């Protein structure tokens, strides 16, 4: 059985005046994540987990924030490109598990839409894309609503 585990983590600042993209979904909020791309912290963590499982480095190697052509890019495109990179190595994703750390807003009602977007891009079932959310009980930079964190772990299988 040729399976590989991958892990990814990503952080972004939250600032006023930005759209808040999470898991490919635009979340209505008074702040959004700051970054060179659309700053979708969940999609970035999943990209890193995919690349890591295939030992292909990290998202910054393949999509550097110094690349002007990537400025403001939709992270769904980065997710699709990362998937193609692991497919070129003969891998496909078995399942994803992830956790978002965010004080506000509540994400429960948005999670099914995120699962659907990610499953569609990666040709998975929605039940293969687990997304959980937690606050940090008002502690630290997440608790002060200064930032958002995503953790993702996934399994790859060699076809
Ligand atoms: Zn990121």
Describe this entry's structure for a reader.
By secondary structure, the protein is an alpha+beta fold. Helix content is 30%, strand content 31%. The chain has 5 helices and 7 strands, in the order ββββαααβαβαβ. The protein has helices at 41-53, 59-62, 75-88, 111-122, 140-143, and strands at residues 3-16, 21-22, 25-26, 31-33, 91-101, 129-134, 147-158. The model has no long low-confidence stretch (mean pLDDT 97). The structure holds zinc ion (ZN). Zinc ion binds at residues 10, 12, 35, 39, 41, 44.
What's the arrangement of secondary structure elements?
Blueprint: E1 3-16, E2 21-22, E3 25-26, E4 31-33, H1 41-53, H2 59-62, H3 75-88, E5 91-101, H4 111-122, E6 129-134, H5 140-143, E7 147-158
Helix pairs in contact: 1-3
The structure holds zinc ion.
Give a quick precis of the structure:
With 159 residues, the protein is α+β, with helices and mostly antiparallel strands.
Largest sheet report = 5 strands, mixed
- How many beta strands in the DSSP annotation? 7
Could you state the order of secondary-structure elements as H and E? EEEEHHHEHEHE
Uncertain parts:
none
Q: What is the approximate shape?
A: globular
Q: Looking across the biggest beta sheet, what order are the strands in?
A: 4-1-7-5-6
Radius of gyration: 15 Å
Overall average residue pLDDT: 97
